[in-house]
Every structure is written in structure tokens, then in C-alpha cells.
Design brief:
heterodimer; A: mainly alpha; Cytochrome Bc1 Complex, Chain D, domain 2; 5 helices; 0% strand; B: mainly alpha; 2 domains; 11 strands; 10% strand
């Protein structure tokens, strides 16, 4: 009980710290496609990142990419390259850049930009087909990007 | 815009081949060879070489080619094809008097076999009386409201789509041959621009999926070229005939975009352009899809 409480306190403290230091989508700095600085200053959680990658309403990365380590999640796509070994092919900064906005690394790629707020042509409200009520948040939060990067770094 | 996005369509291929050899193997995977012979006697053309200047496709393939052999078999026999049930219902509707003028479709057009052969192969098409490119749905509602004094049908509704299937069947086996010149040209150009424009928060165009990645798996589905020569399509997934604009709407929605309205000028233009990408393929509707 005491441990759980302590854990809670740490999570709360963590998230406050995160929002204070968080880099907004428009403020992200790219260098040759890579993003050196953590978006939140809080270490990413690989388990949470794995969930984002495999969940349709979140990253849905498996719609386009195959990942052997995630074979418990059904139906991986083959639009993009396999992510097996991606943690050895790229540095953490390069992976962060690819997740934030892959168009800086691969010109005209069809991979969506996950930490960007526009401009978009005919943006919609998620998958409803309707016009949005206001400005759209990025597809993933800053911390979710960090979590995804942390997971990808485990794929050596 | 069009130029930029067209460049995008070509650009990806180049980048992919140069920098990522492994990736190129995944793009544009042709479907395996198969012949579509309906009822053991009607041979349909499911691949053709498109005319230059219409698309970036080397070959155009009917969507049937990308489906599993089980789904393919269902379309090859009219007794198994559930789409035919709706064609039968539409034939009753064809002969049914409706509206203030006391007329049915048959009053003016006789039998569908007599009057509707070849219609589907050339639509959408410029209509002088409307002063724009018209789809079969628009012509059906034009007859209903202006000639029969009957209510318009919902553009993607069941009655409309079934009637379209009855009309489509009369052209089965004929090559799609929509005109893209003359008065239809500006509409075709608009449709082409729409096809290559990356919409929604996912910033995907029709070409991103159906030109650059046909034959590849996207999650559980295998992408086809998104051709429309097989429409209306009976989908095992929703157990009904699906119209072209309903399919377009679903695909645009999946880019996290605000969709266009079925029957809108935008979707009519897109339909004309997509139809032209399949010029030379047989009319194969009503088709069967998963």
C-alpha cells in the first residue's frame, strides 16, 4: 500500500515535470532528420511504447510495419520496412526524428507525421469523416513518442 | 498542388530504390495470375496496359485479382454471387410503376437487356441536359424526379445501388471506356488532382495506398489498385451491395480527413478519374469482395 502510494506520487510528480519541460510540436528542432533532445525530459517506457505501436487508435504502426517481437499482435502490414533490428540501424535521435515527422528523413514518405499539428488538407475529426471542432492535437503525445522511441531502441 | 503531389508519387519510388533497396521489393506487388471466367462462359479482362498520361500504373488490375481464391470463386458463379439477389430485386423495381406520372423504368426503356447495354462502360459521362458530368445514380434520379414524378432515391441507398447493379450487369464483359476529353476534361483534371492530394491528418492520397502499394498488406487487408470497374461490390463484411461513392467516403475517412458528400461534384470528378484509370478492364460488377 505504502509502495503504491509512493509510486503514485512519483508518477504525478513525473507528469508535472514533463508538461513543464515538454517541447511543443512547432518547436521541435531537426538536424538531418534527427531530433537530439527528448520531447519531455522523462525517459520513455518501452512497454507503453509497445502498446502504442500495436494499438489501432494510437500509433497503429503495425498497420504498415512488421515486427517479429510483437507477433502476439495479429496482422502486421508490409507497406514500410520491417522494424526488426531498427535500434541498431538508427540512433535514438534519428528514431525520434522519424516518429515526430518522418518526412524530414524520407522525402515524401507516406509514413504519417506523429508529432505535428499541421497544416493539413481537409483535416478531419479522427476517423469520423467530420470536420474537426478545433485545432487538432498531434497523433501522439510527446510522452508517447518517447515511449515508442524507447521500445524501438530495444529492437537490436 | 497537382505537380507537387505527382512529383511525390514518382519521388517515393526513386528515393526508395536508391536508399532502401529492401523497401522497393514491398512496393507495387503485382497479383498472382488468375482468370475470371463467369458461369464458365464469360471471360473477363482483369489486367490491361493503360494508355499513357492517365496514371503511373504499368498495368491496371481488377480488384478481383487481389482477393483470396475463396472470395474469387464466389464471384465466378452467378448462383453463388449474393450481389445477384439485389439485381433480381432491382428488376422488380424496374417494372414497378412509381410516382405521379404512372410510369416505370420499363415504360420508357423496355427491358434492361435492350436499353442498358454498354451504359455502365461509358459512365460517368458528360450530360448536356444537366450541363455536367453525370453518374448512373444521377441519371436514375433524373428519370425518377423529372420523368416519373417519383421521389429521388438516396445516392448510396439500397434501391439505388441495386438498380445500378442491374444496369451494370448489362455491360458485363465490355471494356470500360470513359471519355476524358471535350467537355469532361476539366472534371477529369479535378478528379486527378484529388487522387494525388494527400488529405487528412494521416496525409495520405489515393495514390499512397492504391498506386504505390497495391499488392501489399495494410494490417489485415491486401491493397488493390482501388479500381471501380467491379462496382457495385457485394461485401461479405457488411452483407450488402456497396456503391462507388460509399467506398470513396470510407477511404477518405481512413486518412483522418473530412470526407466529401456522396453525389457531390468532387466525388463525381474523382469517379470519372478513377474510372479512366481502369479503361480497358472489363466491367465486372456486381463483384464480390471481403
Amino acid at each position: 500500500m505504502k509502495r503504491a502510494m509512493l509510486g503514485m506520487a512519483m508518477i504525478v510528480a513525473g507528469s508535472i515535470a514533463a508538461s513543464a519541460a515538454e517541447i511543443a510540436p512547432e518547436k521541435v528542432e531537426f538536424k538531418d532528420g534527427a531530433v537530439e533532445v527528448s520531447l519531455t525530459g522523462v525517459a520513455g517506457d518501452p512497454a507503453a511504447g509497445r502498446k502504442v505501436i500495436g494499438t489501432k487508435k494510437l500509433g497503429n504502426c503495425v498497420a504498415c510495419h512488421q515486427i517479429t517481437e510483437m507477433s502476439d499482435v495479429p496482422f502486421h502490414g508490409e507497406i514500410g520496412p520491417s522494424l526488426d533490428g531498427v535500434g541498431s540501424r538508427y540512433s535514438e535521435a534519428e528514431l525520434r526524428g522519424i516518429i515526430v515527422d518522418a518526412k524530414h528523413t524520407f522525402e515524401d514518405t507516406i509514413m504519417p507525421s506523429f508529432y505535428k499539428t499541421g497544416p493539413y488538407i481537409r483535416p478531419g475529426k479522427a476517423f469520423t469523416g467530420k470536420a474537426p471542432d478545433g485545432p487538432l492535437p498531434p497523433l501522439l503525445t510527446a510522452q508517447q513518442v518517447e515511449d515508442v522511441v524507447a521500445y524501438l531502441m530495444t529492437q537490436k | 498542388m497537382k505537380n507537387r503531389s505527382l512529383k511525390g508519387a514518382f519521388g517515393l519510388a526513386t528515393v526508395t530504390v536508391l536508399a532502401f533497396g529492401a523497401v522497393s521489393a514491398m512496393a507495387e506487388t503485382p497479383p498472382k495470375k488468375a482468370e475470371l471466367v463467369v458461369n464458365e462462359d464469360t471471360k473477363l479482362v482483369t489486367e490491361t496496359t493503360p494508355k499513357e498520361g492517365i496514371s503511373n500504373l504499368e498495368k491496371a488490375y481488377d480488384g478481383w485479382r487481389f482477393r483470396s481464391s475463396e472470395t474469387q470463386a464466389v464471384q465466378a458463379d452467378d448462383f453463388d454471387n449474393p450481389g445477384m439477389i439485389f439485381v433480381d430485386q432491382a428488376l422488380d423495381q424496374w417494372n414497378a410503376v412509381d410516382g405521379t406520372e404512372g410510369k416505370s423504368c420499363a415504360s420508357c426503356h423496355g427491358t434492361p437487356e435492350e436499353s442498358m447495354k454498354g451504359v455502365r462502360a461509358s459512365y460517368p459521362k458528360w450530360d448536356d441536359s444537366m450541363g455536367k458530368v453525370a453518374t448512373i445514380e444521377m441519371e436514375i434520379n433524373n428519370c425518377r424526379t423529372n420523368r416519373m414524378g417519383a421521389e429521388a432515391w438516396k445516392y448510396t441507398g439500397g434501391k439505388m445501388t441495386a438498380m445500378n447493379a442491374l444496369i451494370t450487369l448489362q455491360s458485363r464483359g465490355m471494356p470500360v471506356d470513359v471519355a476524358i476529353d471535350g467537355k469532361a476534361k476539366p472534371t477529369w483534371e479535378h478528379g486527378k488532382e484529388m487522387y494525388y492530394t494527400r488529405t487528412g491528418q494521416l496525409e495520405l492520397s489515393c495514390a499512397s495506398c492504391h498506386e504505390q502499394h497495391y499488392g501489399d498488406r495494410i494490417r489485415a487487408e491486401i491493397l488493390s489498385q482501388g479500381q471501380i470497374n467491379g462496382f457495385p461490390a457485394y461485401r461479405l463484411k457488411n452483407g450488402k451491395l456497396n456503391s462507388i461513392h460509399a467506398r470513396f467516403k470510407g477511404c477518405v475517412r481512413d486518412t483522418r480527413a473530412e470526407t466529401y458528400k456522396p453525389g457531390s461534384d468532387d466525388f463525381v470528378a474523382l469517379e470519372l478519374y478513377v474510372a479512366s484509370r481502369g479503361n480497358g478492364l472489363s466491367v465486372t460488377g456486381p463483384s464480390v469482395r471481403n
